[in-house]
Amino acid sequence: MTVTAESVSAAAATIAGAVCNTPCQHARTLSEITGAEIILKFENHQFTGSFKERGALNRLLSLSDSERRAGVVAMSAGNHAQGVAYHARRLGIPATIVMPKATPFIKIEQTRHLGAEIVLEGDDLDASEDHARSLVGSRGLVFIHPYDDEAVIAGQGTVALEMLAAAPMIDTLVVPVGGGGLIAGMAVAAKALKPSIAVIGVETAAFPSMHRAIHDQPPTKGGTTVAEGIAVNRPGRLTFPLVRDHVDEVILVDDGQIERAILMLLEIEKTVVEGAGAIGLAAVLNDPKRFSGKSVGLVLSGGNIDSRLLASLIVRGLARVGRLMRIAVDIPDSPGKLAQVAQIIGDLGGNIVEVFHERAFSALPVKSAALVVVMETRNTDHGRRITDRLAEAGFPNRVLSISAAT
């Protein structure tokens, strides 16, 4: 047995009414920016915040009565955990979720709140999977893999059916890739409905497992990434051949590009996505010529991003586009000079956020001081006008990069 267009259609009928048929909308401003017609699929609007509900529910509904009574086990540190926990509770099926020991507390509590028993075991997902599989034997539970399961893959493929029903003009699908469950199911369904459609997968360069497998390259151990939802060291045994046979290409983007896409979706579309959910837009922004003139469907696969991480991304993004600047200003160490600097910045419309006044550790002459000012500006040109005016007024200065030490 393998995943077919018929099994995806059957999954759509099975889960209908229990998961959201999320909005699929034209993004006018993003289309103007990229030169492509961008259609967004808002899977971050699912109850648990991601597409993972689809496959989890389809798998749960395939259980026999005895399997339902025995209960299920899954390993996950995020979206799959919540999808399984939520729908298992709805269906009255006991659920156990094995999570790595270092899983953030908020994710543990969110999953526990949805009714699952939480087991913290292992330093990473591979170790958690080993423990989850041991519970299959010791407690008679049914294992639900986050992507390497035919019913799960078929459930994820229903995203493509909804997208092409809502926007049949789509000629290119750009889909996040981790273990491959989402893109495998979507590619099978989309190619059956519209053989001419291009299906392009996108991975983070930190975890290029599917990309390397397709190009017959050995796997590598990933590092850190803002797209932790697709931080997978090896593609699935079931998903890889489906991706190889039905997906046109898998491309890579780096974390800086993903961060930029997260912020654009927040500011322009007023929607919160996690790193994996923004990676499709990152790919289009990174290579606009490739997608120019095409009708591109992007899957915003999830919105479960830590609020502290999002706050940090916003600040870093403002700095990258010149709306938040950090400058080092040399001033005489005498009364009134700090006020003069502040007056110049204020008169030109800058807003001072922080000021650091350094005497002891400065390399300047003893009667001078180093002033580091963090200020809000409208854009890079506006910031340049402020720094030029400070220099004209006798306050030499330099712009500090994001990574430069103060």
Short structural summary:
By secondary structure, the protein is α/β, with parallel strands linked by helices. Helix content is 45%, strand content 19%.
What would CATH call the architecture of the largest domain?
3-Layer(aba) Sandwich
Uncertain runs: none
Major beta-sheet overview = 6 strands, mixed
Portion in strands: 15-25%
Helix content percent band? 40-55%
End-to-end Cα distance, whole Å, is 61 Å
Total strand count, please? Answer: 14
Number of helical segments with 4 or more residues: 17
- How is the quaternary structure best described? single chain
Number of domains: 3
Spatial order of strands in the largest sheet? 1-2-10-7-8-9
Q: Can you tell me about this structure?
A:
With 406 residues, the chain is of the alpha/beta class. The protein has 17 helices and 14 strands. Helix 12 packs across helix 13. The longest helix has 17 residues. The radius of gyration is 25 Å and the shape is elongated.
